[in-house]
Specification:
It is built from four helices and four strands. It is α/β, with parallel strands linked by helices and about 130 residues long. It starts with a strand and ends with a helix.
Length: about 130
């Protein structure tokens, strides 16, 4: 079973929690992942800038960051797949950011995959 936890206020453009859950499930299913826990958190520009600096060494805010965990120890609860952190004020399309972040949790990387991730992302968003 997939558990998606939506945290924070994405503002008026944010999809309802059920839609965010559907988008995460769709992206993860494309990689054969059907169970575990994912948190999707909407944060302000200051918080995402802090995370961007701490984890990527990049200055300033960004649209979406993903933090895969991928712990498979079912004895302690659902598999922890990771966190998707989105800054609505720096994101043009929140649905796209959710799918993008979830695909990163599956191990995809658009900076190294010759366009495969972004092509899959576009296909999933057409569904």
């Amino acid at each position: 079973m997939l558990e998606v936890e939506v945290i924070g206020d994405g503002g008026p453009e944010a999809p309802p929690a059920a839609e965010a859950e559907r988008l995460v499930a769709l992206a993860l299913a494309s990689a054969g992942v059907e169970d575990g826990h994912v948190a999707v958190e909407f944060v302000g520009a200051g918080r995402i800038a802090e995370l961007n600096a701490a984890h990527r060494g990049t200055t300033g805010p960004t649209d979406v960051l993903s933090f895969p965990i991928d712990e498979a120890d079912a004895a302690v609860g659902p598999r922890e797949l990771g966190d998707i952190v989105i800054c609505p004020e720096h994101t043009e399309n929140l649905r796209e950011a959710i799918v993008h972040g979830a695909l990163h949790l599956t191990g995809m990387d658009h900076e190294t995959d010759d366009g495969e991730m972004l092509a899959l992302q576009a296909e999933l968003l057409r569904w």
